Amino acid sequence: MQDTRAKALDSEKITINLGVVDLGQVDLLVQEGFYSNRTDLIRTAIRNQLAKHADVIQQTVARKSFVLGLQRYSRQDLEALQAAGQTLHIHVLGLASIDKDVPPELALATIESIHVLGALQASPAVKAALAGRIR
């Protein structure tokens, strides 16, 4: 069970549409043994493009003050912010996670804006409460 949960945090499922010729070429490379399956080829291609543009990514992350990777917000974190009269502007490239025990009212009182490039994990109630602040 723990491996499944850890895997879920590591990846996000996406769907892509490919033309039939491109898909045929992918299948040919898989058939010829260059890749173990379609997913392996697609992941490799994406990683190669990300590596090619790594400098631009790093510069943009720094310029826009993004947290790179995983950023978790607990109920205790948000309660401490509220007690201090402070609010958050969340900027994450990767995964932003708001713990499931965070009530919508606390999230509204402490989170001014959310900009996530990647995935946002939060309860449906918190996502609904913050919908106008998520871009």
Automatic annotation (TrEMBL):
Pfam families: RHH_8
InterPro entries named in the record: Arc_rbn_hlx_hlx, RHH_8, Ribbon_hlx_hlx
Xref: SUPFAM superfamilies: Ribbon-helix-helix
PANTHER family (alphabetical): BLL4998 PROTEIN
Gene3D superfamilies: Met repressor-like
CDD domains reported in the protein's UniProt record: RHH_NikR_HicB-like (cd22231)
One GO process term, biological-process aspect: regulation of DNA-templated transcription
Species of provenance: Natronocella acetinitrilica
Protein name: Arc/MetJ-type ribon-helix-helix transcriptional regulator
